[in-house]
Design a protein that fits this description.
The protein has seven helices and six strands, in the order E-E-H-H-H-E-H-E-H-E-H-E-H. With about 210 residues, it is an alpha/beta fold.
Length: about 210
């Protein structure tokens, strides 16, 4: 399918052919949800930790004699029911990662791209190049394109001026094409691809 290409100034710059296998799928929410869950689980540090009764620095002596006090039978003050005791079944340091097949991950990316295309939230820019590394100038340029919340994907190498100008703009993320991912696509309103990024995606899913 043909798609209009624009310049950063908002002028027409011809058209580009988009593959139906990448941008023309009917998006499936279940696949996208599985991918987002996989990504967020992989990002989790898993460094949460509480001390169990074996790790508490407290005497292990029996609190008082077993019989004759009329009170409940207790042993160590490190038991979970006491103030200052260990935590029962608390969180431990672990990895939250889980498996997701490589084919499902690749399919999820295609569904995310198709979802943006179907929602008319896809914009293709001829070349992501800034004349100077000025944030104020780039904010005005993006505003003229209606981009206040967007993910911008460039080619394998990002223009240094564009990258520097964009890195301080809130709600605008800039990534090279090899960093494209489902979570970032879905969390931003618009998806902006350069022609180089489109070519790289076509090559990747060939």
């Amino acid at each position: 399918m043909e798609f209009n290409v624009k310049t950063l100034e908002g002028k027409d710059a011809g058209t580009v052919a988009l593959s139906d296998e990448i941008f023309g799928l009917d998006p499936r929410e279940d696949i996208l949800a599985r991918m987002v869950r996989w990504q967020l689980a992989k990002k989790q540090q898993g460094t949460h930790k509480t001390k169990g009764r074996a790790e508490i620095a407290r005497t292990g002596a029996k609190m008082y004699k077993q019989k004759g006090t009329g009170r409940a039978r207790h042993h160590s003050a490190r038991a979970p029911q006491f103030r200052g005791g260990g935590k029962a079944h608390g969180p431990v340091v672990r990895s939250h990662e889980h498996d997701l097949p490589k084919k499902v991950r690749a399919l999820a990316l295609r569904h995310a791209l198709s979802a943006k295309f179907k929602a008319e939230d896809l914009i293709i820019i001829d070349d992501l190049v800034a004349a100077e590394a000025k944030t104020k100038a780039l904010v005005g340029t993006l505003a003229s394109l209606g981009l206040t919340n967007a993910l911008v994907i460039g080619g394998a190498e990002l223009d240094s001026n564009f990258k520097l100008a964009a890195q301080n703009i809130p709600n605008v993320d800039v990534l090279p094409v090899q960093g494209i991912n489902v979570y970032d696509i879905l969390r931003r309103g618009k998806l902006v691809l350069s022609k180089a990024a489109v070519e790289a995606l076509e090559e990747r899913f060939k």
